[in-house]
Amino acid sequence: MACTKLTLIEKISEKNNLSPSEAKATIETLLEIMKKTLESGEDIMLSGFGKFQINEKAPRKGRNPATGKEMILKKRRVVTFKCAGILRDTINGN
Question: Which CATH superfamily is domain 43-94 in?
Answer without folding.
Answer: IHF-like DNA-binding proteins (4.10.520.10)
